[in-house]
Structure formats: structure tokens, C-alpha cells
Design a protein that fits this description.
- This protein is of the alpha/beta class and 226 residues long.
- It has one domain: Glucose Oxidase, domain 1.
- The chain is 31% helix and 25% strand.
- The protein has 7 helices and 11 strands.
- Helix 2 packs across helix 6.
- The termini are far apart.
Length: 226
């Protein structure tokens, strides 16, 4: 098979995917150093949509989906198709037929730096799709691309097998080798945020770090308060 198609790569394990799926994309981005979140142009077709799984990377020319068809044939159940469509919105790269095939094969969802179509039917299918937007135009199927290679999607480098977690806020990518070490930090952050929200609901709304931050920024002088 062509070197343009890499079909064998290590994926984040199903157990780690299940654990990570319990967290918001925002929590994982925070504990990863406030990085790994794709550009906000890539959003769910419907806010309720969410997904988690290992990335199955696809690189295509704008408006051409030949390699996405090949990726659907090669992906494993639980994979997330992550497609570098170069942000193009002049033609949809996927629609109902391809999404139905993905769902039937057990693919966990699709992330496209590009457009989709048939959004109402995809909504009825309840299949998670994250994309730049929609366009009625269909794609061409003529141009070679690459599968399984590192890509850039939404401004973030994605390697095949990396963890993808996406929800109403957008898409977060976590490098495969970092996932296990970040899960305890995510648990701790969730607990800390819940405690802080509890304090706020009891009337303690003042941010304890604010005065020092304002002093460090030169807004307040040493010893001053708001």
C-alpha cells in the first residue's frame, strides 16, 4: 500500500478513552496547559453532540473527499475521523450517506476543518459531527491525499492515535502519551471548580487571586485593593 496511507499506529487505549470521556473538552484543555483546543470555527452541528476517541487522521485537498472514503474503509470502531480540509467552506466534504456508513461501522464521530451538508438528517441520526459549517455543494473525488500522517486541524497538530474529546465548546486534542498522566489532574480540577462554585453560591464571590494579579499588571499599587 502507498506510503501515503499509514494504517498501523498506536491508539490511545479504550480504557483511557472511557475515562477521558467523562470530562469536558475545556477541563482537558486546561490541564494540558491551556493548549490543544482547536480553533472555534470547528463547532458541533448541534450543541448536544459530543465524542471521544483516538484520532484517525485524513489530509485532503480542499473540496475533495476521495481519501475520506478510503479512511472510512480503513478506520476501526471507536475511531474519530479527523480531517484537514484546509478550512474550506465552498463544498461539503461529507453528508448523510458517508455519515451513515461511519455510524454503521462504529466510528465514534467526525471532526472536519471544512464543511458538511445534510445537517438536519445528521441531526436526526444523532451522529456527532464537528465542522466549520455547512454548504450544499458536493465534493469532487479526484485528488490523492494522506491517511494516518500528522495533520493540522483547527490550528492544532494531530497525530494518528491522539485523544480527541469534543463537546458543545469545541474540540480538544491530547497527545496520546500524555493522556494517562493528565486524568488525575482533570479529576482534581473538577473537584476544585465544584468547591469554588459552592463558595460563590454561599456569597463568597470575590476571586482570591485578583488583587495580586492586578498589582502584578500595574493596575493597582502594592497594598491597594479594589
Amino acid at each position: 500500500m502507498s506510503q501515503d496511507i499509514l494504517r498501523d499506529f498506536e491508539r490511545v487505549s479504550p480504557g483511557l478513552v472511557r475515562q477521558a470521556a467523562a470530562f469536558q473538552a475545556a477541563i482537558l484543555a486546561d490541564v494540558a496547559g491551556r493548549r490543544g483546543a482547536m480553533h472555534g470555527r470547528i463547532a458541533p452541528l448541534r450543541p448536544r453532540m459530543k465524542l471521544a476517541g483516538p484520532a484517525f487522521t485524513v489530509d485532503v485537498r480542499p473540496g475533495d473527499n476521495l481519501m475520506i472514503h478510503a479512511a472510512i474503509a480503513l478506520a476501526k470502531p471507536g475511531d474519530v475521523l479527523v480531517i484537514d480540509g484546509k478550512g474550506d467552506q465552498t463544498a461539503a466534504l461529507m453528508g448523510t450517506i458517508m455519515m451513515t456508513a461511519c455510524k454503521q461501522l462504529g466510528i465514534a464521530g467526525v471532526v472536519i476543518d471544512g464543511a458538511a451538508r445534510d445537517s438536519l438528517e445528521i441531526d436526526e441520526m444523532d451522529f456527532p459531527v464537528f465542522c466549520v459549517g455547512t454548504n450544499p455543494n458536493g465534493p469532487t473525488k479526484n485528488v490523492a491525499g494522506r491517511i494516518g500522517h500528522p495533520i493540522t486541524c483547527g490550528g492544532v497538530t494531530v497525530h494518528a492515535g491522539d485523544l480527541i474529546v469534543a463537546d458543545a465548546d469545541g474540540v480538544t486534542v491530547v497527545e496520546r502519551v500524555r493522556v494517562e498522566s493528565l486524568l488525575p489532574l482533570a479529576h482534581r480540577k473538577v473537584a476544585d471548580e465544584a468547591a469554588r462554585i459552592g463558595q460563590i453560591l454561599e456569597g463568597n464571590t470575590a476571586a482570591p487571586w485578583l488583587a495580586k494579579a492586578l498589582q502584578a499588571a500595574g493596575v493597582l499599587k502594592e497594598g491597594e485593593t479594589l
